[in-house]
Amino acid sequence: MARPTTRVIARAFDEARFGPARTLDLRTGLPSVAEALRRAEPWLRERQMARAGEVLVITGRGAGSPGGIGAIRKAITELLVRLKRGGVIATMKEHNPGAYVVALAPIRALFETSPRTRHRTPDTAPPVDPAGLAILDAETLGELRRLAEYTLGELGAPVTPAFVNDEMLRHFSLLSRGIDSAERDRASRLNFVVTAARRAFEDD
Known about the structure:
By secondary structure, the chain is α+β, with helices and mostly antiparallel strands. Helices cover about 50% and strands about 10% of the residues. The protein has helices at about 5-20, 35-50, 70-85, 105-110, 140-155, 160-175, 185-204, and strands at about 25, 55-60, 90-95, 100-105.
């Protein structure tokens, strides 16, 4: 009976450690660079919202590519570096020449790294919901409003309608990046990420 190879054993350990829910395989099926990036960023942001902890991102080695570095691996490496600056990723390390182990940052880090700008004063801004939030149902909009009020309160900023609206837009812009553009049930995914973010602040 043939003995399992080192590669097979390593793969079995990875499957036991991470499982399907915490593994992103960008090698199988040979996707294009654009497709790999389209899948990777929303997946990593969604896993952050789910508090998945450590995840495995399989890029493949790209040994046959020019310079011995695959285009997908290069693009994903650059994405991981960017997401680390953006508060999505805490650490990243090479697991093997074809994969990274990525530790996702706490949800709060996502909001702490995004700059705030104020282009209007609380007295002059209209106290209405921004039109860009019209796609949200009442429940999700309420969760987003509570999140905005909470983060403004922590900053010591005025919790006025104008500032709340600005903060809601800011949070919505950040959180909607965690949803694949091809997602069919976008409304429920939006509700999930907004609610997860609001609960993260409560839990901490």
